[in-house]
Amino acid sequence: MEKKEFLDALMAAVVDGEEEDSAAAAQAALDAGLDPLTLVNEAIQKPLEKVGKDFENGDCYLPELILVGDAARAASDVIMPHISAEDMAGSLQGKVVIGVVSGDLHDIGKNIVAAFLAAQGLKVVDLGTDVSPKEFVETVVRENAEYLIISTLLSTSRPFYRQIVQLLEARNKRTETFVLVGGGPVTPKWAAEIGADGYGRDAKDAVDLCRLLSDMVQKPPLSEPILVNALS
């Protein structure tokens, strides 16, 4: 097979939402000598961006979005360890702890965000769903994470966001960790009220937030949260 064929095979597996095929195609492409960063940018990031736009435009449905996100993450898990420090200079660096707060078992949006972040080079620690404030904070401390991303689709789970920020402060980690929030019932106003550093609506917003914050000289907490969709 030509190198382009390996690239096309990986892209097709991601677009088709085939998790196992994506991981296998990623490994085959690496074995064939393809550049890991090229694989991420061309065969993972582009399909993710396309399906995200298609979903927003009504050209694809939620199940497709979920499958593509899972496939992209499976491929990223294979590729990212092979990216050199020099290559990583052009990618996002650092560690993200992400999860859905206590009382909420919905993980669709969180999984897609995690896939986007992993494709950008960040190390993602995914806590899953129904995560207590204590578990969030203990993981941030243990992993020494630069970013904490909290999500929920339930308004009844929203008060836990404030508890997480307060626990970070109590553990003296608030000045080391950017807190990013999102989810259906979460608003920019709420993000400001609880002292978050950023608010986003979707996976692209999460990536843009991490990129903006990584370039900032100012350390957390910020006086006002960054609102990505308000910057465009």
Q: Characteristics of this structure?
A:
alpha/beta; Methyltransferase, Methionine Synthase (B12-binding Domains), Chain A, domain 1; 6-stranded parallel β-sheet; Rossmann fold; 53% helix; 10 helices; 232 residues
Structural topology:
Elements: H1 3-15, H2 19-31, H3 36-56, H4 62-79, H5 85-88, E1 95-100, H6 108-119, E2 123-126, H7 133-143, E3 147-151, H8 159-170, E4 178-182, H9 188-193, E5 198-199, H10 203-214, E6 226-227
Parallel strand pairs: 1-2, 1-3, 3-4, 4-5, 5-6
Helix pairs in contact: 1-2, 1-3, 1-4, 2-4, 3-4, 4-6, 6-10, 7-8
Describe this entry's structure for a reader.
The structure is a single chain. The chain has 232 residues and is α/β, with parallel strands linked by helices. The protein has two domains: 3-88, Methyltransferase, Methionine Synthase (B12-binding Domains), Chain A, domain 1; 95-230, Cobalamin-binding domain (Rossmann fold), CATH 3.40.50. Helix content is 53%, strand content 10%. It has ten helices and six strands, in the order αααααβαβαβαβαβαβ. It has helices spanning 3-15, 19-31, 36-56, 62-79, 85-88, 108-119, 133-143, 159-170, 188-193, 203-214, and strands at residues 95-100, 123-126, 147-151, 178-182, 198-199, 226-227. Strands 2-1-3-4-5-6 form a six-stranded parallel sheet, with helices on both faces. Strand 1, helix 6 and strand 2 form a beta-alpha-beta unit. Helix 2 (19-31) runs parallel beside helix 4 (62-79), helix 3 packs antiparallel against helix 4 and helix 4 runs parallel beside helix 6 (108-119). The chain starts with a helix and ends in a 5-residue tail after the last strand. The mean pLDDT is 88.
